[in-house]
Amino acid sequence: MAKTAVVIIDMLNTYDHQDADALVPSVEQALPAMIRLLEEARRRGLPVIYVNDNFGKWRSHHGEILEAALTGPHAHLVEPLRPDEDSYFIVKARHSAFYETPLAYLLGTLGVGHLVLCGQVTEQCVLYSALDAHIRHLSVTVARDAVAHIHPDLADAAVNMMEINMAARIVPAAEAFT
Amino acid sequence: MAKTAVVIIDMLNTYDHQDADALVPSVEQALPAMIRLLEEARRRGLPVIYVNDNFGKWRSHHGEILEAALTGPHAHLVEPLRPDEDSYFIVKARHSAFYETPLAYLLGTLGVGHLVLCGQVTEQCVLYSALDAHIRHLSVTVARDAVAHIHPDLADAAVNMMEINMAARIVPAAEAFT
Amino acid sequence: MAKTAVVIIDMLNTYDHQDADALVPSVEQALPAMIRLLEEARRRGLPVIYVNDNFGKWRSHHGEILEAALTGPHAHLVEPLRPDEDSYFIVKARHSAFYETPLAYLLGTLGVGHLVLCGQVTEQCVLYSALDAHIRHLSVTVARDAVAHIHPDLADAAVNMMEINMAARIVPAAEAFT
Amino acid sequence: MAKTAVVIIDMLNTYDHQDADALVPSVEQALPAMIRLLEEARRRGLPVIYVNDNFGKWRSHHGEILEAALTGPHAHLVEPLRPDEDSYFIVKARHSAFYETPLAYLLGTLGVGHLVLCGQVTEQCVLYSALDAHIRHLSVTVARDAVAHIHPDLADAAVNMMEINMAARIVPAAEAFT
Known about the structure:
5 helices, 6 strands, homotetramer, 22% strand, Rossmann fold, alpha/beta
């Protein structure tokens, strides 16, 4: 299997958007698995790449995005996932982690051919990023208990799409690196 | 509303892949609406853009792709949709109509800001192309009776995703230009 | 004429690479025109976009890139050009300002159709960015006295290429907005 | 060294544009070296990839582009270079062979890491394609006697840029594969 990296999507978040009410309980449920996934990736020395929306704030850097998220009312969803010194960070402007970002270039530089995806939203940015990885012949694992959704039905369908149509491996976070 | 083009996806097809048994009946059902959609687009003078997989045949041009499809056992699904003199044609190598193709460039040249999507497969290339259009701030209409699926449940979910998460308008082909 | 933005290329720099000896005198000469160009752009309320190499430091944000440049031996070439509160900032990994970056997306969001280029290196990143702008149908002005080079002959040729083959307007910085 | 492919740029051409008078004599001079380069590539079983402008004719396929070029007054510049059964063909809409085309994807599929460039115009599409190859970490050889120019001075500068700034190998066509 190719070299693996963990990609954690849109978790530096102030949760002040309209779907937050539906999203937050799912994030709370997925948070422990995300934390363990990052810990295990770091223990194994694998790259951990934060890909995060800039929320239209082109003047901010990721320190400011993190700070805004950490001082908001949902800081408890951000604090346990804060990047460490070795984390990579890529800002995205739109949904997919790959669209008009240097993610594909960074993965090539690192020699990564396999992504473990976690974060939010299962039926949106996670799905779109899985597609854009598959289209680039990267293999994809989705840590099923470490992704959060807004619409549970669409999330289930998205997971099925990733498994059936994008050849993604769907496993619990605890089995992501096995 | 911005200038409209019809994008017809992957309909020049030999249907010799493993999912054909599930796909063909859905294509047969959607075919009349596709035919009427193209007729109406041409009557209105709107651009009709065929975006079609090259099936790994980099040496073929679209005439050969069409010919192969027209001489296969499912020619009745291809013949009524054959491109005319004014049709545009873009070859894609992977799922999305936009990935590593000049489609975005062509749409910019034509001044098109609104796509009417038809073709196949609803829960795959149609969904992915809708996403890549939405990400580029193009507005999208899906002609619901003019798209064909393999998995009806995933197709329904895909249509919901396009409507809820990509702001797509979901209408019958007969209302696509209204 | 379309809305204008200034793009300043690779000026947050530690000048510790092998070509620095040839580059620094040219930067010193171009610096006053760059300063005036940014001042005038800000006076007019035009977007100023810093596009800067990340020097392979994917973990750094632009504050750190700026800080490194400001504490090096060539801080006098950086200090007068430091971004202000309203500056945009885009990190690039490779030569062109457009390659695998969100610059094209940001320009679209801002409604910008005309770029005034300054910075370094005339015959490298400035040339490549002018090309990638021209290819996208953005119009380009090069502030001739506000770009710095390594090889004067190649810089002259690059300016000719931009003028003849990319339809760029070549003017002194003082005339960039006229 | 990585697997090699020959990329021949914009040689299916009607030469009815405004720079043709300056270009044609240079093409006539470079033609024999191009012919030998293609012959040698085919003898060695290397992929030969035609990347050609579509001249805004989105409805044409490459057979029609070839036919138009073969029936024009400069057919003698096209006939000896016509694609064979094994040639790959990619249509480009703008200058660089890589911009909004599937070339990078095709090269990845073929496992190609080294391009030998020939064709026209040295100081335009050849230069831009060399840049876009270098940016993608592909290595580049330019067959110096198998590229044609409009402006000899800019062509010399372009060759210097490719050698100095893009790490291209500049050799006669006869040494392109050694």
